[in-house]
Design brief:
Layout (H helix, E strand, L loop, with lengths): L3 H12 L11 H10 L5 H14 L3 H6 L2 H8 L6 H16 L6 H5 L6 H12 L8 H11 L8 H14 L5 H15 L17 H5 L15 E10 L4 E6 L10 E2 L1 E3 L2 E2 L2 E2 L2 H5 L9 E11 L3 E10 L12 E4 L10 H14 L1
Parallel strand pairs: 1-8
Antiparallel strand pairs: 1-4, 2-3, 2-9, 5-6, 7-8
Helix pairs in contact: 1-11, 2-3, 2-8, 8-11, 9-11
């Protein structure tokens, strides 16, 4: 082991971030934080973690919740499969009778991959296994001058081995958390604090002027664009939502009436399409068009309408009628939240 690890641990003692899930070895609290912080900034994720811990302070409490309740509490974080997996895993843990304590058993939980299992195992149970995430890739790539793409099969294997070789068996928790914090505070993606870095003297990227070039990442495929049409139906103070089915984005969340963006190869005529459900006449209002919403692998462009028919429309059987004021009890995607806010603005 070279000077990297002791220097990093010394830096961590002086610069560690104070976070509530670091004041415990409760695997439930740690696991919850790791799931929430996937694809989420700490500032935003902290509020959600606190809310979840207040509402469901134990894994048993979370397991007893309904999926709708969990999705509603998760609303706004995105990547909703994380919430569904969290709920399923909570029930797995309760069925086991305790939180699993080996790396393989932790990885057997729904939605838990190598990184999350390593984080839980090392922090909660002291298992000597290194975490590898974006911060770790960046720190190691720069310090050791590694230009193997981090999202290649070879790169993933190489960086996992390198991180493991640096981890002290007697301090796995401190080492893993120091790597997370060092990448988030010191060795940041943009404008890293190299001049004050305790590792600068031995950092290959700093010495060779390649800090901005590392880590290397293979180019991703171009984002696909998808068009959506949503209609908020309002009739006598009630509206209709349906739960999105499996096999598509936002599985298990709720949405208002939707129409295909193309019919017989042509852009959908919204007025004509709605006539199949009821009287349109002068009751349709375009709230917004081409509303842009970016997901990981696609760009969504949505048209929003408000339909206030004079007679109750006959909608497909999977739509559920409810009071308009009750829609906030259902988990919906961020895009649908925006539609709801536009509808409420129309009411003022």
């Amino acid at each position: 082991m070279n000077a990297f690890t002791p220097t990093l641990l010394s830096w961590f003692e002086q610069n560690r971030r104070e976070l509530p899930w670091r004041d415990t070895t409760d695997p439930y609290a740690i696991w919850l934080s790791e799931v929430i912080l996937q694809q989420t900034r700490i500032q935003q994720g902290l509020d959600y973690w606190l809310r979840f811990m207040r509402r469901w302070p134990t894994v048993e409490a979370l397991a007893a919740a309904t999926e709708d309740e969990v999705l509603r509490e998760w609303q706004g974080l995105g990547y909703y499969s994380r919430a569904r997996n969290l709920h399923t895993a909570a029930r797995q843990i309760v069925a086991l009778g305790r939180f699993p304590r080996t790396l393989d058993d932790i990885k057997a939980l729904k939605g838990v991959g190598d990184y999350t299992a390593a984080a839980i195992g090392s922090i909660a149970f002291g298992l000597p296994v290194a975490v590898v995430d974006g911060n770790v890739y960046r720190v190691l790539a720069r310090y050791f001058g590694v230009d193997t793409p981090i999202n290649s099969t070879e790169g993933k294997k190489l960086f996992a081995q390198l991180a493991q070789s640096l981890l002290p068996d007697d301090q796995p928790s401190a080492f893993n958390q120091s790597m997370m914090d060092f990448g988030a505070i010191q060795c940041t993606p943009q404008s890293p604090a190299c001049q004050s870095c305790p590792l600068a003297d031995t950092c290959v990227a700093f010495r060779e002027g390649r800090v901005g070039q590392l880590p290397v990442k293979l180019r991703k495929t171009k984002l696909q664009t998808r068009h959506l049409i949503y209609i908020y139906v309002r009739f006598e103070g009630r509206t209709a939502l349906r739960r999105r089915p499996a096999g598509d984005i936002w599985q298990g969340l709720w949405e208002p009436l939707s129409l295909p963006d193309m019919t017989d190869g042509q852009p959908t005529d919204v007025t004509r399409a709605l006539a199949a459900y009821g009287d349109v006449a002068d009751s349709l209002t375009l709230l917004a068009s081409q509303v842009r919403h970016v997901l990981t692998h696609r760009i969504l462009l949505a048209d929003f309408y408000l339909w206030q028919p004079h007679t109750k429309p006959t909608l497909p059987d999977d739509y559920v009628w409810m009071d308009c004021d009750d829609t906030n009890q259902y988990g919906v995607p961020r895009l649908i939240e925006l539609l709801f806010s536009m509808v409420h603005s129309e009411e003022r």
